[in-house]
């Protein structure tokens, strides 16, 4: 059995009832992977879990959620000091998964988890607005948040983020040309 470095999955609280995710984690544990799981409940949880991951000595911290979860975990990682900073892995569980899609992370949970744990780390660019605000994907000036909070979950899951974003921009007088 191959040896894999330990990892810590920081899971968005909205994904706790995801049975396929539980099955994927159990399958990978059976293959010999050590996967610690922590669930976020409120602001600041991701930063606390990143610090816990460093104390555990894990090689990878996996952000399990959407773009917001990825942003919160990556911000916590970039604020770490020292040489023992874990790599960022991504498990796409959001509505749009814009960043995960753009870097080619598979949608299949077991494949995305395995890639996060056993794949090769690559450098990515991050933008830092001030000492506490970082982002790796995009800054929207509030548009994305407004769409997300004002759109019922049922519509988001059916229509998909790209269509919703495109429609909202057009409805509010903004140009939304390009592919959906």
From TrEMBL:
GO MF annotations, alphabetized: ATP binding; kinase activity; metal ion binding
Listed EC numbers: 2.7.1.-
Top-level division of the source organism's lineage: Bacteria
Residue span, DAGKc domain: 2-133
Cellular component, GO, one term: plasma membrane
SUPFAM superfamilies, per the entry: NAD kinase/diacylglycerol kinase-like
Gene3D superfamilies reported in the protein's UniProt record: Probable inorganic polyphosphate/atp-NAD kinase, domain 1 (3.40.50.10330)
Keyword hit for Cytoplasm: no
Reported cofactor(s): Mg(2+)
InterPro entries for the chain: ATP-NAD_kinase_N, Diacylglycerol/lipid_kinase, Diacylglycerol_kinase_cat_dom, Lipid_Phosphate_FormReg, NAD/diacylglycerol_kinase_sf
Pfam families to which the protein is assigned, alphabetical: DAGK_cat (PF00781)
GO biological process: one example: phospholipid biosynthetic process
Keyword list, A-Z: ATP-binding, Kinase, Lipid biosynthesis, Lipid metabolism, Magnesium, Metal-binding, Nucleotide-binding, Phospholipid biosynthesis, Phospholipid metabolism, Transferase
Family designation: Belongs to the diacylglycerol/lipid kinase family. YegS lipid kinase subfamily.
Stated name of the protein: Lipid kinase
Biological source species: Escherichia coli
Record lineage: Bacteria, Pseudomonadati, Pseudomonadota, Gammaproteobacteria, Enterobacterales
């Amino acid at each position: 059995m191959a040896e894999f470095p330990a990892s810590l999955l920081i899971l968005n609280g909205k994904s706790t009832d995801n049975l396929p995710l539980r099955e994927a984690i159990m399958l990978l544990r059976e293959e010999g992977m050590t996967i610690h799981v922590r669930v976020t409940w409120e602001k600041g949880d991701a930063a606390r879990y990143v610090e816990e991951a460093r104390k555990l000595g894990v090689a990878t911290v996996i952000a399990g959620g959407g773009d917001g979860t990825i942003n919160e975990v990556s911000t916590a990682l970039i604020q770490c000091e020292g040489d023992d900073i874990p790599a960022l892995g991504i498990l796409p569980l959001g509505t749009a998964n814009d960043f995960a899609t753009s870097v080619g992370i598979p949608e299949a949970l077991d494949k995305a988890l395995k890639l996060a744990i056993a794949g090769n780390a690559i450098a990515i660019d991050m933008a830092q607005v001030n000492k506490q605000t970082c982002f790796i994907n995009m800054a929207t000036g509030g548009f994305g948040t407004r769409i997300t909070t004002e759109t019922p979950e049922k519509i988001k899951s059916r229509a998909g983020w790209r269509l919703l974003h495109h429609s909202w921009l057009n409805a509010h007088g903004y140009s939304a040309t390009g592919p959906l």
